[in-house]
What does this fold into?
Amino acid sequence: MKLAKIALVLAAGLLVASTAFAGEGKGEGLYGFQITNGVADLYSTNGNYISAYQAPEFGFAFQYWRLMTNDYAFNMSVGMGMANEKDESSVSGDPDFEYKQSSFNVRVGGDRAAKIGDRAIVYFGPGLEYWSGNSTFGDDPKSENTTRIAVSGRIGGVMMFNEKVGFNCQIGRFVGRATAEADGAKATWYTAGFEGSGGLVFRF
It folds into this structure.
């Protein structure tokens, strides 16, 4: 419950900030809907301990950019990730085993942006990310949430098809610290991974 409140407060703050920047009229605004891929930090139970592991995930995200000056953009994004694995036994009659994971994340940062002609923008910059996710093994109860706070850097570009619609693609890397607690056991670890996304952007 405490983590959910923190996430909601952070997300609300980002939305308020983005609205304020949009109202100042200092530059162009871009909204993006992205298909994403990244890395989930999760845990498994090992006796009286829990042990960390990483797994790939894909998902969807909403991004917002606001050009504060001619070459600097405020950025925020809110996204969700997921993964699903189905295992079938070699023995006829054995039940199938299914693994699932899900997550959400919020990121805020600043990008140095450079326009290339009238229809392209290249950007790169740092950001701060909050990530939270869980997993389910077969019929076992859903795990408690693992949380991750990380710094990230990314580079990307926007290609406009016309004045209002374009395509965005980016890659990045994060480095941070993750924490998980379950039934009195606790695990903390440093973590890192790559992430990327691509999708449509709209200029307003």
Q: What stands out?
A: Residues 88 and 96 are 5 Å apart (CA to CA). The longest helix spans residues 2-24. The two ends are 36 Å apart (CA to CA). The chain has one helix and eight strands.
